[in-house]
């Protein structure tokens, strides 16, 4: 039993209010957890020997009650599922959590590799896009120059046609 004074701990009244239950119900839940874990000092206590609760404790109670509402499930059974009762179960849970963490790390590594690959592809696409934009500008310039040459040629052809309609200078006298 430790004489802990820390603002991270909630008194029974505060914890009960947070959970929306009575202090007596909170005491019942605490006794179930202590019985299941076979640890009478599972919860921190203050100098008056009152239990003190953390947000983790409250989350555990919420899970226990949620499981307790399932068919053929009591609060004692729910507590046994949530709180390990022996060192072997704790070790098994720890091993399971370590495996889960390792799996998450491996998945995270794969995701980071995928992100790097996608960044590389985006960079390549940006370069290709810049080249296409440059080619597009060059083609626009060539098109404008081509249009100017076409206009000049049209003017020359029109002048030539006009000259052909007039005929030669001697045709003016022959008529």
TrEMBL record:
Ranges annotated as spanning the membrane: none
Biased composition regions of type Polar residues, renumbered to the chain: 135-144
Domain of life: Bacteria
Sequence segments annotated as region (Disordered): 134-161
Listed Gene3D superfamilies: 1.10.1660.10
Cross-referenced InterPro entries: DNA-bd_dom_put_sf
Coiled coil: none
Compositionally biased residues, Basic and acidic residues: 146-161
Protein name: MerR family transcriptional regulator
């Amino acid at each position: 039993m430790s004489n802990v004074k820390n603002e991270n701990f909630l008194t029974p009244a505060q914890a009960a209010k947070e959970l929306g239950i009575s202090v007596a119900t909170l005491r019942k839940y605490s006794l179930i957890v202590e019985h299941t874990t076979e640890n009478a000092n599972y919860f921190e206590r203050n100098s008056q020997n009152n239990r003190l609760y953390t947000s983790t404790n409250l989350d555990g109670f919420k899970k226990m009650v949620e499981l307790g509402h399932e068919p053929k499930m009591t609060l004692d059974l729910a507590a046994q599922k949530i709180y390990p009762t022996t060192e072997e179960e704790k070790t098994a849970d720890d091993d399971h959590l370590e495996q889960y963490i390792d799996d998450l790390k491996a998945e995270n590594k794969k995701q980071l590799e995928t992100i790097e690959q996608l960044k590389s592809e985006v960079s390549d696409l940006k370069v290709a896009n810049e080249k296409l934009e440059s080619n597009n500008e060059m083609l626009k310039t060539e098109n404008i120059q081509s249009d100017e040459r076409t206009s000049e040629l049209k003017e020359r052809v029109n002048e030539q046609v006009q000259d052909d309609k007039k005929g030669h200078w001697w045709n003016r006298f022959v008529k």
